[in-house]
Amino acid sequence: DNLQKMTMQTIQTIANTIDAKDEYTQGHSKRVSDYSGSIARELGYTEKQVKDIEFVALLHDIGKIGVPDSVLNKPGKLTEDEYQLMKNHTVIGADILKDIGMIPEIDVGAKYHHERYDGKGYPEGLSGEDIPRIARIIAVADAYDAMTSTRIYRNRLDPDIVLEEIRKGAGTQFDPDVAKAMVRLLEENRLIS
């Protein structure tokens, strides 16, 4: 129990460090972790699996450590070169986490959470079931938090618009089953945050 508590506190500290780098994402990692856990429970995962997914989700953006602050906090549209730097956070994150064997798939969440179900995501353009399921869960949680948070480039979106965006993204941006689970959680006001 003490080892697990210490591990969780260490991971939370790292997540807080990541969020502190981007002034508009305070608490983002913890919220994505909570949302990912809610989705996993809704999909029938065991409590042990849910906890592992929450750990993985806490560190999904660790690669942002390798993105220059000038790009991360730029108020306007990113140039193509800046966008490529931003996209690299997935690969950087996976590389940072690859040697941690204590939590299954910890590097997978970081690397693949920006893949899209239709294959138009990054870093590898994976599609459908080729995207690890944990990354498909984190992708929906991450997108939800992005839409419901004020960012440097736009204000938070209205909850009805967010719900519609998740519905519309099922089968294209998002795994349909994961998107449906998120929609149920939102419609029934059961999303843990």
Walk me through what this model shows.
With 193 residues, this protein is mainly alpha-helical. Helix content is 59%, strand content 0%. The protein contains ten helices and no strands. The chain has helices at 2-21, 28-42, 47-58, 69-72, 80-87, 89-97, 106-112, 133-148, 159-169, 176-187. α2 runs antiparallel to α3 (47-58), α2 packs across α8 (133-148) and α7 packs across α8 (133-148). The radius of gyration is 16 Å and the shape is globular. The two termini are 24 Å apart. The mean pLDDT is 92.
Gist of the model:
With 193 residues, this protein is mainly α. It contains ten helices and no strands.
Query: Mind telling me the C-alpha Rg?
Result: 16 Å
Termini, distance in Å? 24 Å
Give me the secondary-structure category.
Answer: mainly alpha
Number of DSSP helical runs: 10
Largest sheet: none
Give the rounded overall mean pLDDT: 92
Share in helix: 55-70%
Name a few traits of the molecule.
193 residues, single chain, mainly alpha
Write the layout of secondary structure elements.
Layout: H1 2-21, H2 28-42, H3 47-58, H4 69-72, H5 80-87, H6 89-97, H7 106-112, H8 133-148, H9 159-169, H10 176-187
